[in-house]
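Re: weekly structure request thread

Next one in the queue (142 aa):
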Amino acid sequence: MFSDSDILHETIQAYLETDYRACGDTPTTLKVGETNPTLATLHEAHDAECSAFITACNPFSQSSSDDFNAARQQALADELKDLGFTFIDGIGQHPSNNWPGETSFLVLGLPIETAKALGTRYGQNAIVWSGADATPQLVLLR
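Done, posted below.
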């Protein structure tokens, strides 16, 4: 399925198993490949046909310091604000491995091409994107 990627199979598998939790007033946990009714409600409430779950932390899945990650995440937040997107704080965390959770954003109305460009700019291997069907999908960036 992802055979043409430069990303290790084990890393892709971890991404597929990760819980992508959006916080805020309407918390929900996104799972790749599973339609999420709460996400559909968020899409409708914000007049959005899509969304992306994205982080700027730990570029290329290389562990970075808390200060480094916080600065990158703030830069992403600033860029999203400048672009006029609504976003909800979140965290992506695998349910059983030792990788620490990564602060993230669920960005409402973020088109896939813009989401891919942001993920690439912030050194991410992948993003999670959902279309109008509110079914999160893993989108590899390299």
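The chain has one domain: 9-140. Residues 26 and 42 are 8 Å apart (CA to CA).
Next request, please.
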